[in-house]
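quick one before i forget lol
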Amino acid sequence: MEQKAAARRGWGEALGPYFEREPLGALLLGLSSGFPLAMLLATMTSRLSDSGIDKKTVTAFTLVVLFYNIKFLWAPLVDRLNIPLLTRAVGQRRAWLFVIAALVALAMLWLASIDPVADLGMLAVAALTVAFLGATFDIIIDAFRIDHLKPEQLGAGSGMANYGYRLGSAGAGALALVVAERAGWNAGYAAATIFAVPAVVAGLLLGEPARRTAALAAEPVMAFGERMRTAFIAPLADFLTRANAWLVLLFIIVHKLGDTMANLSLRLLLADLGFSKDAIAFYDVTLGLVAFLLGIFVGGLVYARLGMMRAVMLGLILMAVSNLGFAWLTLMGPSNFALALTVGFENFSSGVGGVGIVAYLSWLCNLRFTATQFALLSAMASILGRFVSGTSAGALIEQMGFFNFYVLTTLLALPGVLLFAILMRRERPEPPAAQVSPQVSP
């Protein structure tokens, strides 16, 4: 009996932080953060392929999400600028959150209304608009979450944000596919705009972050020009003057190259193999989500046992190996079993790796510049893979075939593994696991 009671207390202590108001708010924010990117990548690939657009044009469309990779350029504006009238009414952070949520939904409805065959150019403009607003949505969501989480809630809040992000991206993608199968792509995209609502609910639930309001009130009065100069320059200067800064930045830029190229081209492979939208929705989206969530849980256990740096290394190796699964799928053909195994392992590997990698990126941020530095680091993490995918992936697939292409993506993951092995020897001692990882009971 005592052992059972102790076990219940252990699970209660482990799970309790996830049900506090701020981590629940982080879950809602993550639900909204995940949906614009999902609609621009995998779902857009399926939509364009369905319309008979050639592979080079389809992969070129992934370039629109490069806005996510340069979002740090205007992140300081989101940090500092007020929205007239609304800021006075609801606060600076919530004003940005509410306005951008509404604009993202409206832009998505515009994107839904355009026929790719009749007006591909206008579709590109709409996609660029959604990408810019979605990246701005990410900036304010990350800042709002970080401002609200107390230091002791960082682990649980980050874990809930990751869960929310994946649920939002998977849910929006699945909803769009299922609705599109029955009512067309216009209706599918329109239905997915419901995922902008959870962020608004989080804003109403959490209110304006009091700690940030107090910190801004304590700042010395500065002229607008001086305030903008400090906002833009100080975060970057702080990061680049650290030991190993350039090596860290190089690792962040290259470590997801192979993984990003493989994932951005997956829907092309599934379309070529002849999988139906319903099969893609179930195996790639639903089953993939379950595998990813399981991977996050296992990643938390691995992090607690191995520590941050070794957990990152294990995740990098797993994500590289998972690309070989796509090569195997090309040999198996339209087999649901092969698709389930391939997608399951890839998503499980991403979940395991994501725990350590997100913790590492969080650890690199100076708390004085968290929003801008996190925007910089998260943007740099996939910029190379998205650029190469948008400019070269379609041509590489046509020249090499899918099998050789996925073998190539596996090889492209190796430089990140080697660079991190060097960083493991050079970086300062890592923090205790409880400070930055999801709170998973070992």
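fyi DSSP finds 25 helices and no strands in the chain.
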